[in-house]
UniProtKB/TrEMBL annotation:
Organism: Pseudoduganella umbonata
Protein name: Aromatic ring-hydroxylating dioxygenase subunit alpha
Taxonomy, superkingdom: Bacteria
One function term, GO molecular function aspect: 2 iron, 2 sulfur cluster binding
Entries under InterPro entries matching the protein: Cholesterol_7-desaturase, Rieske_2Fe-2S, Rieske_2Fe-2S_sf, VanA_C_cat
Entry keyword set: 2Fe-2S, Dioxygenase, Iron, Iron-sulfur, Metal-binding, Oxidoreductase
Domain spans labelled Rieske: 21-124
Length: 344
């Protein structure tokens, strides 16, 4: 997605809105050895203590700017590999071996970030400034209730994350791009759509069609931005009703996106075991095929494709979301300006 020259609103959106939770990687990406991840317009270093406690700092040593991820984890701190400067999980420098007692010791000199694990992923609070306590991570019930079982599908795609949002908020593409899929062969290709507001966002849905195909998408904000949809399953798809997908997304470096899709069914006890076995042995490969169709299309789109569009009624959900995100970015810019003026 092209960044419009000198457009500060677009620049905010390209890096990701502040003061929200974002999924940044699967849990298994991070062990005791420091890991560097470029997300949300900066580089982070993540590591675990031996008891599993997870930490995140900006991947930047305050001494000379070397990446802390090239250093050694020492429990709740990292020793920079360049000169041994030790930075604690809260960003405070605890030791400068080359100059003990210097003013750098005891200073909070590196940005620290709150992280939390849930549903097989690591979530990071993208704070605009350091906060002692972040707001709670509130995920959709499909990822937080024991009534559901899920599998995390994680991929990294080339292209702006906003194209991924557009794709998920476009139920009609399933009727055409995925028409050969085992679960998307039905439905009206000329359906009318409507937008229905919810307590946390809105639903973009086909009128007079439910439980037939990819019929609707929900966009929600609960301190984290997420999307949810359902695809009807035949009885051969096993227990649990419709197949639910919950999506989360995070911008990486320019032109790349970390994509999280949780595949969910409402199942418990023996039905849970049946569904999980059936998914791994029969259904997962088909779902990866659908996802690959999306990837090929989105990665082939030109960076400025969204600047040369002729949208129609099927696209009003996309228009609604784009306008909403721009309004959030404008509000963020206004807060930043106000904070700078107060500081002066």
């Amino acid at each position: 997605m092209r960044t419009v020259a000198n457009d500060p609103v677009d620049a905010v959106l390209a890096a990701g809105l502040k003061d929200l939770w974002y999924p940044i990687c699967p849990s298994h990406f991070v062990a005791e050895k420091p890991v560097s991840l470029r997300r949300l317009g900066r580089k982070f270093v993540l590591w675990r203590e031996t008891n599993g406690t997870l930490h995140a700092l900006e991947d930047h040593c305050p001494h000379r700017g070397a990446p802390l991820s090239q250093g050694i984890a020492l429990g709740d701190r990292i020793a920079c590999g360049y000169h041994g400067v030790q930075v604690r999980f809260d960003g405070v420098v605890t030791s400068v071996p080359g100059s003990p007692g210097c003013k750098l010791e005891g200073a909070k000199a590196t940005r620290s970030f709150h992280v939390q694990e849930a549903a097989g992923a690591i979530f990071l609070y993208n704070a605009s400034k350091d906060v002692d306590e972040p707001p709670p991570l509130r995920l959709p019930e499909e990822l937080s209730s024991p009534e559901y079982s899920n599998f995390l599908c994680y991929v990294e795609w080339n292209g702006d994350y906003r194209y991924v949002l557009d794709n998920v908020l476009d139920p009609m593409h399933g009727t055409f791009l995925h028409k050969q899929s085992h679960s998307m062969a039905e439905g009206d290709s000329t359906a009318a759509f409507r937008v229905r507001d919810t307590d946390t966002g809105f639903v973009f849905e086909k009128e007079a069609q439910r439980g037939v195909n990819f019929d609707w998408t929900e966009y929600g904000e609960t301190g984290i931005q997420w999307m949810r949809l359902e695809i009807p399953y035949p009885k051969t798809g096993g227990p649990g009703g419709n197949f639910i997908i919950v999506g989360g997304y995070a911008p990486m470096e320019t032109g790349a996106t970390a994509v999280f899709f949780w595949r969910v069914r409402k199942v418990q006890d023996w039905q849970r075991d049946t569904w999980r076995f059936l998914y791994k042995n029969r259904l997962e490969a088909r779902h990866w095929h659908v996802l690959e169709q999306d990837r090929v299309i989105l990665e082939a789109m030109e960076p400025d494709a969204n600047q040369r569009e002729m949208l129609y009624q099927h696209d009003m959900g996309i228009v609604r979301l784009r306008r909403h995100l721009r309004s959030l970015a404008k509000a963020e810019l206004a807060r930043s300006v106000a904070a700078e003026e107060a500081g002066n």
